[in-house]
Design a protein that fits this description.
By secondary structure, this protein is α+β, with helices and mostly antiparallel strands. The chain is built from six helices and seven strands. The protein has a seven-stranded antiparallel beta sheet. The radius of gyration is 15 Å and the shape is globular. The relative contact order is 0.23. Pfam families: Polyketide_cyc2.
């Protein structure tokens, strides 16, 4: 069961929306705190990087510190669903994007799920869910702007 859910309709084809969301390099465009993303799959071309099991390092810039998080593409069902797992400090966050048709373009349904993997994070899970929900609350608006070409 998802810890938080959001939906937005974008004026973009399902194929273009899927291609954008399935490429973790685009996270710098949709999260204001993501400063960079690099592939951990050395020796592969950018196209080969977009496959289930591909791993990336995402750097988030907070007011007084930078935090690295490993990302893994865990599910790719073109052009319908993308799931990216984020791993850091005893916490996994699963970002799932479901794509569907809409009269105005493509409906994106985002579901976020927080999984605590250590005792400390299990005890803090409600606070962690609240923190992640707050950090990610507006990212679909940035997806919409990026796909529709708004500045």
């Amino acid at each position: 069961m998802a810890d938080f859910v959001e939906e937005v309709v974008v004026n973009s084809s399902k194929d273009d929306t899927y291609a954008f969301l399935s490429n973790p390099m685009n996270r710098t465009k949709i999260y204001s705190i993501v400063s960079e993303v690099e592939s951990l799959s050395s020796g592969t071309s950018p196209v080969e990087e977009i496959a289930v099991g591909s791993r990336f390092l995402e750097m988030r810039q907070f007011a007084n510190r930078r935090v690295g998080t490993e990302l893994e593409l865990t599910e790719l069902v073109p052009p319908y669903r993308v799931t990216i797992k984020s791993e850091a400090n005893g916490m996994n966050v699963f970002y799932t994007y479901q794509l569907g048709d809409s009269d105005e373009g493509t409906m994106i349904r985002f579901e976020g799920k927080v999984e605590a993997t250590k005792l400390k994070t299990r005890l803090m899970r409600p606070a962690l869910v609240k923190m992640v929900r707050q950090e990610d609350s507006d990212h679909l608006l940035y997806v919409k702007k990026a796909l529709e070409g708004d500045s």
